[in-house]
Amino acid sequence: MKVLVTGGAGFLGSHLCERLVADGCEVVAFDNFYTGRAENVAHLEGKIDVVKGDVAEGLPEGKFDEIYSLACPASPVHYGARPIETMKTSVLGMLNILEKARRDGSRVLHASTSEVYGDPLVHPQVESDWGHVNPIGVRACYDEGKRAAETLAADFRRLYGVDVRMVRIFNTYGPRMQPDDGRVISNFIMQALQNKDITIYGDGSQTRSFQYAGDLIEAMRRYMALPKKRIDEFFAAKGLDAPVLNTGNPGEFTISELARETLRQIPTSRSRIVQKPLPKDDPKRRKPDISLAQELLAWQPRVPLAEGLAKTIAYFTLLASGKEI
Amino acid sequence: MKVLVTGGAGFLGSHLCERLVADGCEVVAFDNFYTGRAENVAHLEGKIDVVKGDVAEGLPEGKFDEIYSLACPASPVHYGARPIETMKTSVLGMLNILEKARRDGSRVLHASTSEVYGDPLVHPQVESDWGHVNPIGVRACYDEGKRAAETLAADFRRLYGVDVRMVRIFNTYGPRMQPDDGRVISNFIMQALQNKDITIYGDGSQTRSFQYAGDLIEAMRRYMALPKKRIDEFFAAKGLDAPVLNTGNPGEFTISELARETLRQIPTSRSRIVQKPLPKDDPKRRKPDISLAQELLAWQPRVPLAEGLAKTIAYFTLLASGKEI
C-alpha cells in the first residue's frame, strides 16, 4: 500500500511513518521542515522516501492509497510566528489534498485538533460541540484554519464522496516533540533538565489531558482500516455532519500535578515551580470525551502519563546531552 | 480617489458603486458574475469600469486608495450550490486583497457578516462575542470562510500594519436583491407578486433585523473616512483584537410580521401564509448591538422597514413585469 504523510518529518508524522513501515507500507514523508526535522526520520533512512515541499503549494506526484494530512505548525510559539503561512497550510494544504484524493480515489485522514473547540462551553468535549473560538485573536490562525479545513473536508465528502476522516487530536506528547515548542510537557522537562524555574501560567489548577503519541497512532491506523460504508453509517447514526473523532486521553491532570510529576522523575533537578499570568485566550479546561472512538475503533489510550513521561524525559535527556538520536 | 469594489456588480456592491460615483471617486467594479449581474451596474455605464474576474484568482492591475471587499455569494441557496468556491472566495480572495493592500498601502473595508456569530449565545450580538458556528455543517462554507477571512485580516493588520476594517453585516435588503436568492424578504415579495403561498419556516416567531442597503452604505463610507489612528485607538479601547463593527438595524421583526407587512403593501396579492419545517442550522434569533457603530460613526439606520420594503417591492414589481431596470 502506498501512503503519503504530509508533515511526515514532524513529531507525530515521524511516529506515524515508523508505524506505517512496520505495517509494510510504502511511505512518502512530505515536509517543508518548518517545524519538522530531518533527524526525526533519520532512523527510517532507506525505508521511506522523504520529499521536501509545502502542502500549500503542491503535493508529490504519484497515486497514493492513503494520505495522512498532518502538516501544520501546532504550537502557539510556531504558528504565532507565522500566522498567515499557518492559515495557508491549513486551507490551501487541505484543498490540495482533497483535490488529489478526489482525482486518485485516495482515503484521507486529516489531523484536526481539540483547538477547534476553543475555550469550550461543554466539558468534557464531545464531537457534536460547535466550539467557542475567537476569530480575530492571536491563536485564530491555527484554530480557524483548522476549522476551515474541517469545513472543506466535510464539503468534499458531501459533494464528491471523497473518503476523508478526521481526528480531533487532544494534547499529545512523546519523544521527538520539539524542546522549544512552548508546550507544557516539553517546557517542564527542558526547564527541569536545565535547572531553570518551572513556569506555571495562572494558578496551575487548569487541567489538561495528555495522550501518548503511540496511542494516537494506534487510533489513526484503526480508523483508516475501516471501510467507508462503516464510517458513513456510524457518523450518520450519531447525527454528525462529517466523520470527526476525538482522540485523546481523558485522564485529567492539573498543570501543577504535571510539574510535580516531572520533578519527581528528574530527581537531580534543582528547579523550583513559579507562577506567571495566564496568557490571553488560553483555554481553561480541555478533556476529550472519547466514547465515539472507543465504540468505533475498540480503542482506548494504554500508556499512563508516568510511563509516557519517562520515555519523553529519556528522549530530551539524550537531546540535551547533544548525542545523535 | 481610486477605488476597487470586489463584488461590484452584486446587490450591495452596486449600491456602493453608485454612492462612490456620487462622492466623486474613480471606481473599478470587479465581479465574476456568479451572483452579480451586469444589469445591476448598467445605469453606471461610462461612470465606472466593470472588470470581469475572480478574487480567488487575482485582482485588477493598478493601485487603489481604497478596496472594498464585497465579493462572495451570500445566500444559502447560492453558497450551498458552490461550497468549495465559496470558501476559496472568502479565504483566497481575502489573501489576494490583503497582499495587494500591503504592497500598495491601500485602505481596505472587508464585508464580513453576522453569520460569524452563527446561532448566537449572546443576544443582541456584540462584537466581542466569539460566535457559535457548526464547522462541518452545510452553512459552514460561508460562516467559516468568513471567519477565516476575519482571521487573515486581523493578522495582516497586526503583522504588517495593513489598514483593514471589517463590518459584520446583518440582514440587509433593498432594490437589486436577487429574486431567487432564497432570502426571506425577496422570497416573500416574489411569492406575494406571483400569488404563491408565502412560506414561513418554523412557527414564524423567530426574529430578524432588516437593514436597508442605503443605511449600510452610509456606515461603510463613514467608517472608511476615519483616519487609521482613530480606528486603532477606538478598537483597542474597546478591548477588541481587530476593527470589527456590527452594522444592521436593531429593530426586531418576527418572520410572521414581515409576511403580513409584505401582504399589506401588495394588496392585490392572493397569497396565503403557510408553514414549513425549520431547516437544519438555521439561526433562531439575530439582532445587532450597534452601539459601537453609533459611537464611532455617529451613525444609525434611518430607513424604516415599511419604507425600505416599499422601494424593494417597487423594484421587484418592475423586474417581474420584465421591464428594463
What does this structure look like?
2 copies of one chain form a homodimer. Helices cover 39% and strands 17% of the residues of chain A. The first copy, chain A, has one domain (2-177, 209-250, 282-303): 3-Layer(aba) Sandwich (Rossmann fold). In chain A, the strands form 4 sheets. A 7-stranded parallel sheet of chain A has the order 3-2-1-4-5-6-11, sandwiched between helices. In chain A, strands 7-10 form a two-stranded parallel ribbon. A two-stranded parallel ribbon of chain A has the order 8-13. The radius of gyration of chain A is 19 Å and the shape is globular. The model of chain A has no long low-confidence stretch (mean pLDDT 95). The first copy, chain A, has 325 residues and is an alpha/beta fold. Chain A has helices at residues 11-22, 76-79, 83-104, 140-160, 184-193, 213-225, 228-237, 255-265, 291-297, 305-320; strands at 2-6, 26-31, 49-52, 66-69, 107-113, 164-169, 172-173, 198-201, 207-209, 211-212, 244-247, 252-254, 273-276.
